[in-house]
Amino acid sequence: MAQPAQNPDADPVEEPMAASPLPEAVPDAPDAIQSYDLTQSRNLSGGMPGLEIIGERFAMGFRRTLASALRLTCDIQPVSVELITFRDFIMQVPRPTGLFVFQLPPLPGGCAVVFDGQLLISLVDALCGGPEVVFDPEAPALARDLTRIELQLLGRLAAPIKRDLTHAWEPIMDLEPDFNQIVIRPELSRLADEPETVVFAVFELAIGEFRSPLAMILPMATIEPVRSRLMRVSQVPGHVRNSQPGQRLVEHIPDIPLVLDIELGRTRIDVQTLLSLKEGDVIRLNNRSDGPLVASVEGQPKFRGSPEAEGSTMNFRILERMLEEPRD
After folding, report:
1. CB within 8 Å of 274: residues ≥ 6 apart
2. Delimiting residues of CATH 3.40.1550.10 domain(s) in the chain
3. Of 79, 142, 176, 284, which alpha carbon lies 20 to 30 A from 315's?
């Protein structure tokens, strides 16, 4: 075949080069930048077991704090742990709401424990020393902001909440929470910018038939230094995961209120003597003045002891535990 004519003025055609092997992928450096989806919520159940353990330990400790403040038996159970934007959190939270804001050194940033407004008003009543707080499930939602005086009273809870946060984080690291402020509007907390991602841990408080939400907010920037540790931790010595009804029952036992009576003595009188009693009369009891008194728990004698005066109050010093009588 005839060879095609060659144009001497044409540019020379470069011969195709042989394909060289691609360089091997270089693994990310340990401190490589991590990317987060800031637009979608994501359930973290099972993804960061360390956060679940922190939530369970906080619920156990804070349950005792609230029971002491309200003088009532209550229960707090973790509900969910999610990643959402701070903007979504602001839109979800009902008004009014109280946020106890803490810094968490040595971690950067802080966290907030979030209360429903109706619960905060009940806490104010309890802190003022009023009668036993009654929680009505049908009560209307609080329609006003908390006053400055009410916020100052609620500040008394900062110290026990700080203690509960410290205890909750002990399996992960030693924290030194520092109380910052109480705010009634989430956007004033300055915890995070609105587009930033936060961990939204939700709890449920139960007092009889009354239910109230509680929450904890942790910016992702705060937990980033220990994120890998939170993903690795699955069990902590001495901490039993709150998954079995029997374990939940055991956890409630320390908070069960009991009636303890201390008997000064007994005597027998007839109806005529009872009707004739008046102010200033003395009733002779069967106990000696220097004899021991008996303390009964729920009607069952448990301790012998002696009365003591301390200032304007009377105390009971336990001298011995009484042996239980055998039951048939």
Report:
1. none
2. 42-255
3. 284
Query: CATH 2.30.330.10 spans which residues of the chain?
Result: 260-275+285-321
If you average pLDDT over every residue of the chain, what do you get?
Answer: 78
Query: Of the ranges 112-116, 236-240, 271-275, which one carries the lowest mean pLDDT score?
Result: 236-240
Superfamily of domain 42-255 in CATH is CheC-like (3.40.1550.10)
Which homologous superfamily is 260-275+285-321 in? Answer: SpoA-like (2.30.330.10)
For residue range 58-112, what is the model confidence (pLDDT) as tens digits?
999 999 998 888 878 888 999 988 999 999 999 988 877 899 999 999 999 999 9
Nearest C-alpha neighbor of 287 from the set 272, 273, 270, 307: 307
Return d(Cα 46, Cα 44) in angstroms, integer. Answer: 6
Please state, in angstroms and rounded to a whole number, the distance separating the CA atoms of residues 183 and 211.
22
Look up the pTM and report it.
Answer: 0.60
All residues at 6 or more sequence positions from 131 whose CB lies less than 8 Å from its CB, including other chains: none
